[in-house]
Amino acid sequence: MEVILSTLINGLSLGGIYAMIALGYTMVYGIAKMLNFAHGDIIMVGGYVIFVVMATGNPLLAVAVAVIACVILGITIERVAYRPLRGASPLAVLITAIGVSYLLQSLAQIIFGSAPKMVTVYEFGSVQFLGATVQVASLVTMAVTVVVMAVLTLFVKYTRLGRAMIAVSEDRDAAQLMGINVNAIITITFAIGSSLAALAGLFYLMKAPNVSFTMGAMPGIKAFTAAVIGGIGSIPGAMLGGILLGVVESISYKITAIAPYTDAIEFSILIIILLVRPTGFLGKKRREKV
Amino acid sequence: MKLGKIKINHYINYLVIGLLLIVLSSMTVAGVRFDNSLLFLLEKVAIGIILAVSLSLVVGFLGELSLGHAGFMCVGAYLGGKVAALLVPALGNGVLAFVISLLAGCAAAAVCGIIVGIPALRLRGDYLAIVTLAFGEIVKSLFRNTSYESFGGTLGLDTPRFDKKYLFIIAFLLVLLTLMVVQNYIRSKHGRAVTAIRDNEIAARATGINVTKYKLMTFTLSAALAGMAGVLYSYSNYTVQSTQFGYNYSIEMLVMVVLGGMGSINGSIIAAALITWLNTWLPTKLTGDLAVLQNLLYALVLIVIVIYNNAPKLKGFRDKYNLGVLLNKFKKHDASKINDDKAKWDVVPTKISMDEVLSVDFTPQDLGPDKEGGRK
Known about the structure:
Radius of gyration of chain B: 24 Å
Shape of chain A: globular
Order of helices and strands of chain A: HHHHEEEHHHHEHHH
CATH architecture of chain A: Orthogonal Bundle
CATH class of chain A: Mainly Alpha
Number of strands of chain A: 4
Structural class of chain B: mainly alpha
CATH topology of chain A: ABC transporter involved in vitamin B12 uptake, BtuC
Number of domains of chain A: 1
Strand content of chain A: under 5%
Strand order of the largest sheet of chain A: 1-4
Number of helices of chain A: 11
Distance between the termini of chain A: 55 Å
Oligomer: heterodimer
Helix content of chain A: over 70%
Helix content of chain B: over 70%
Largest sheet of chain B: 2 strands, antiparallel
């Protein structure tokens, strides 16, 4: 019972991290219509910024600087690498995104070396809950995820800016004709996604206190998987997919027989979902326009 | 027989690789002993060319992105290597065992291609990229967790040794085979259908092309060729390690295709040879932490070349300064000698650009004589 409970809470908090990354993917995919491969590596940059600023010993400062740095990075990437390709074939944008991801990884490796760096952001400790030992960091992660998700949903639904985002994702040309500055909306989307990536980096460090240049790659791919499972372009879908994937992962790690195959299991879920329900659980079916 | 410009392009690479093959193999037969590192480099170049050409089929001609090409290669390497290891005691280490294991590796990779392609190719967008990426990771973790007896597990699979002196000849014969298959495929009815899908899927569908069938066919062919490269790899390396076939390897193949120019087979061949050589030469120059500079270089190649070739705003610049224009300056330009309509195909619009339609300025006199003789 205790094992089940702690596994579940572990899974939910891991799922929260995935959900936060997946939100970035799903928003950029919905609005800019591109798969931002470099999104996972923004987490890594956030991790390194936290590592550097933690030299001052102030966790709040570290997190704030990391969020700002990631937002600036996200906007810069969009300006320099993606904007010139607006209107070009999706394949070209995708390859550039992979190039950016690779660039960030190798730059991090040049600056910080390939050995992982230890960083302890803040010790929350643990509490006893129904007989199980639960990390407070996990609970904080879950709480923050829920808050972020709620704020984002309200923002998109009820503010002018949020509605403009929906309009751009529905039909970019029509939105432009209605006087929406499409470029600005896309920039803002990248900024939001990148700040979420920085937060995800923070929570990831609370789980596993190591920064390395590849730390963003795997969570990035898994979060994209989560976004597809939940239905790409849908904010609650990203949340659902992320949590589902996190729970599956932590359960799978607990069962010795299948533990080494955890990654394979998660990616197999992606392939099966695409086969059975390509739009994901909460995705809308889009008719192709001619 | 009249050779068109396109045909000459196709024969040039047969000619160059064939000549290289004949010269090197006759030297081997005559008793010249090549340096082992040179032989190894030749094998690697051949593997690189097969991989780049097969990936170019998907990226350049189908217009989809595969990030799991190393995964297909991995399947081919493990399955082919295993079959070879089982066959060699029975058949001896000869060509027969090699051919059978080659077929086994190709078939295994092709089956994987079908399994991955069916869910991903039905969907539009970037799904193939992410599914193939996932596939690469699945394959890696499956082979890493096998037992020592079956596929070697973390230690890797030991594969039979093949006489190094002759392996590169087989490797280049396989390159020729790959080129023949791919180039003829592209120029066939099927290949035309594939490029039609790339240029405008809706229009292709409307003309009765079975889009999913052709996409799946091309993708499977490409996977099978990658499997072939894998079998070659297992013969060339004596041991197959699943960690070799990671994401980075797939990216390296993508760099070859992008550097060579998407949709250009000759370009892919040159780029594959160049990158493979760089991979063996650069690590001798860049040691320690500097080794990362190589990855940085690849990343910059991807970003700069793709933006330069695709950015809508750079179109005017591209049309003015490109290799074709520079070459034409040396040639005497004679319009009557252009006998194919290749140039014209570039200007056939596949999509109507709304800006152009809306901004056509005309004055009434352009429409002909004004009958009412009215306003000017």
